[in-house]
Structure formats: C-alpha cells, structure tokens
Amino acid sequence: MSKITRWALPSILSLSAVSGVSALITGITPQLHAQFKTVPTTLIEWTVTIANFSALLTLIINPRLTKRFGVRKVVVVGLLMSGIAGAVPAILTNFTAIFSCRIILGLGIGLFSPHAISMIAHVYQGDFRARLLGYQTGISALGNAVLLAFAGIVIVVSWRAVFAIYLLLIPIAVLVIRALPNVADNEKEPVNSNQRLPVLQLFLCLLAFVTYMLIWGVQLKLPVLFASHHIGSPSTANWTLSAMNIGGLVAGLTFGRLHAKLSAYTLSLGYLGAALSVFAMVFVRQPSVVILASVFFNYIYSYTGPYLVYRSNLGLSDQLIDRVSSYLTMATIISAFFAPVVWNWLGQFGTGTLTENALIWIGGSLSVIAIGSFVFAKNDLKKDPEVSNQVQQLMTYSNDWS
Description:
Growth Hormone, Chain: A, mainly alpha
C-alpha cells in the first residue's frame, strides 16, 4: 500500500459525496420532454436511470480490475469517464447521443462508487474505521443534496448547463491521483458453494427491489408533477429533491433510536408514512403542502432501507453476508431500470394524468406493503423475540459510529 498522506481521507470521502451523481439530472425531465417531444416517456426517464443499470457491468468486474491495476487507477479512470461522459450532453442535440453518454457515465460510476466503502475498510482500523463507515452514509446523502441544489441554481441559466456539473468529477480525479492510497483487493477464502441463502433473505432482497423501484417512481414523477401543477419555477423541483436528501440524512442519523422503540414495526412506519405522503402530493394542490410531503416522503421512507439491510444480515455466515449484500446491491440498481417501464405502464390506468395515476399506484402499493410488513413484524417477533434484541444491539452499535 502506498503512503497515507493527510489528503488521503478527503480523497476517500469525496467518493461518497459523488456516489449518487447519476441522479443529478432528475430535475430536468420536464425540459427533456419538451425538447424531445417524439421520444417516449419511458426513454426520457431511462435517461436518468440507465446509468445505474450500466454501472452494474463494471460493478461486477470491479474486483478483477482492482486486483490487476490497483484501486487508484480504476477509480481515476471511472471519475474521468463519468466526468467527461456526464458533461458532453450539454453540447449535444441528438437524443441517442445523449442517451449513449449516460450509459458511459454509468460504466464510470461502477468503477469508482464501490470504493467509497472499501477504501475505508482497506486503510483504517478499529473505532476510527467504524466512525468513518457511519459518516460515509451521511456524506453520500449530503453530497446528493448539495449537487441537486446546485443543479437548481444552474437550471435557471439553462437546463443543458446542468450536465456541465459533472465536470466537478475531474478535480476529484486529480485529488485521487495525488492522495488516494493504492491498494489491491486481497484474495478471499474459497466460498462454500453449498451454502444457500434462507428464503427470508431472498424475500428481503425482492422487497428491496420493490422498495427502490417505488422511490425511483416518486423521484422521476415529482419534477413532472411540479411542472403540470405549476408548483414554483423549474428550479423548485431540484431544490425539493435536494431537501429530500437532507430528510434521508436525518432519518439515517435517527434510525437507531427509532428502531430501539419500534423494533420491527419501523419498517411498517416507513411504508405507511411514505404512502400518506404520496397521496398528499397527488390530491393536495397547495404548493407548500406538496413540497413538505415530498421531503417527508424521503425522510420517513429512508427508515426502510437500513432495516432491510440489517435484518437480511442477521444469523448469516460471513460468506452468506457477502452474498446477500451483493444481491441487495443488484436489486437496488436493477430497480432503477424497471421503474420507468412499470410506472409508465400502470400510469395508463386511472382517471388522472399518467403522472398522477402512477403516483396513486405507488401510494396504493406502499399501503399494501405497509399492512403486509405489519403482519410479518407481529408474527416475526412472536416467533423469535431474540430477533428484536439482536437488531437493537446492531442499531446501538450503528449509532456509536456517528
């Protein structure tokens, strides 16, 4: 491993700050609709989410690349690839070319984003490592909020200029070249292929897929809803999406305390609160209420993800924990690809506009899952009361990180 300098930590944490950079253009979907009128809605929304899907390819081969070239080179190539491919659409007028650039952007993200966590584990030890892992989640949410807020300012000048924000990845690449410790992944012990994930863990992975597909549906439809209901200026949607990330940050910091009180029912609260928020977005036309409901949605819904991750890891061997973590990551990434298809199809059924119908379907789905998770939590705690104690201990430790 190369020498660790005082700039090593900023270089590592900067990867967390830009790990969600693919969503940067979420707020300009109405402008994309207006510019490319003949392009189907699903393709317009795929312009936002396709980067998540293409990132899956480089995520899969990332361990081999880092083993051969070292983390620093892989991360630098990923940042430069994403920075250039992300910014080029600012000067393009052809939709196919813009869409292709978004695919390349995703390939770059898949090269650098996994190392936002792995570099902390490689370089730091003990309590300091634990604290950094806790900070990593918060920095990721804060980075998303800042980038989306910046997009809300830039969009006033031009919606195309929002793409230029991706150029910020290039200075980060320079910082990484100078300061990121260069490590290679260690060989892992042979995996026992006979070990299989329990049915519950497979179900939780499926639930994670649905959970993230629902949140992608809200985030994709929100800018269009704001435009159709004449809520604020074009930058209002970006500012709201930014505030939603802050809500997610607050939820992450308070999750342990809430779970200590509600235990498995935390999941039900997240889904129910999100359902009520979505219905408020659709049926209450007061702009301030819609904005507050949007922020509250991301806040309350952000309690579901941590619970699914921790619950899916309970009682598993180290090998199975790695496997379920991979499945969860793939579920969240693939959900971004399917969200436009599912919600635009369901949006055709209903009495409102496509956007309103899609959000109503999302609210209804959240309500059904909330009821189902409540019944499951009740039965789960009766069947195995120790589950509650184990998760509470994990949440207490998680709180100590931050």
